[in-house]
Write a structure and sequence with these properties.
This protein has about 300 residues and is α/β, with parallel strands linked by helices. The chain has eight helices and ten strands.
Amino acid sequence: MTSTAIRPSSAAHTGHNAGHGGAEPAGRQRMKVIIWGINYSPEPTGIAPYTTDLARHLYSEGMKVAVVTGFAYYPAWRTAPTDRRGLYRCDLDGGIPVHRCRHHVPARPGSLGRMLHEASFILTSMLCVLALPRADLYVVVSPPLGIGLAAWLVTRLKRSRYLFHVQDLQPDTAAGLGMMRPGPALRLLYACERFIYRRAAGVSGIAAGMMSAFAAKGVPSAKAFLLPNWQRTEHGAEATADDAARFRRDHGIPADALLAVYSGNLGRKQGLGVLLDAAADLAGAEPGARPVVMVVAGDGAG
């Protein structure tokens, strides 16, 4: 998403500037954006790196950016001892105020624990957002899905608008993995999703398949756009053959082996049991066949 994709609203740039990174330069209008999502740096994986990069990019483009997020907990599903006191805290990420909100972090993230986890963040973060000065745009990162309902209420009260950025189609995932059976609860989730999409100024997703899903859910094409996750490379450079050879040496992987890698979250949604089945099949390969080494790199509830 470029800085020209969304422009300030006509009512925007009056009032107090606290929480948005300093005083307004004389004679210059800067769009005020609040990025609102549960994950942010220093979480090293999952959604956090993309939300962090987005905030920093918009800030570098001259926008007045603030972030409302949780205390870091992912992928270990626990907060650092230094983060376990207080309901709110404001950090600075460069020139970006990062408002951290307390939320429940379950020791074992089952269904009930996740519900309490998401609900607690939605509540504490909504109160935080309401206390901050009005933004021209609220970029709301889902999951959790319910944060979209909070965004609708906040933007109604503050006469603003929100962009709903979808990293995970939660109702579809819950249904597809059998985490929720067809019934009133699942229908309620889909109803909430439709409501959030209808009220959003825009709906973005990270894959072409999401664009198709948005269309099937009734999101007008003019409101839906693709904002795919990008690749982060060490030192901003592409990996080289030397990097690959060093990885093999560090992990004792033969140079002639076919290397199959999964890198990312280790959770129920990923269905990583199929890798164990595949590894068992490969273990019975005929003598002399090219060796295959499967690497799983990541962390998470699984």
